[in-house]
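Batch manifest, entry 17 of 40.
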Amino acid sequence: MTPEADDRFPGPPERTAWDSSGALPPTAGPYARTCTSGPFTVVEVFGEIDLATAGFLAEHLDAATSRPGPDVLVDLRHVGFFDCSGLRALCRADTRARERGGRLRLVSDTPRIHRLLRASRLLHRFPPLDRIPEQPDPTRT
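Output type: structure tokens
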């Protein structure tokens, strides 16, 4: 017996392209999601990033740095815990962005992330922004 159309499981929801190349971002999850804000690709990070969850972050960072000239902002303002596994993912993505002529910057207004970057001697590589930069208004001259 063959299944009827209404007996079949629905497929994954359709996603729309997130950039002009037609590439799709990874599916948003409990630890990371990707969106665009003007010229930036923003990877928003949530919860605890450790050995068990850093792979989810890395998936979003890999996609965000896959194009030429990526301008990636990693928003860490909603992170409760971040360890060396997350730092490894950030360093790898930063290297990849630079190799493609782009950049990766962190957004964090929390002292614990600043302390982590300072203790790991990565503060010079990732000087955190306290917010996502505003887009210039093209109508203003």
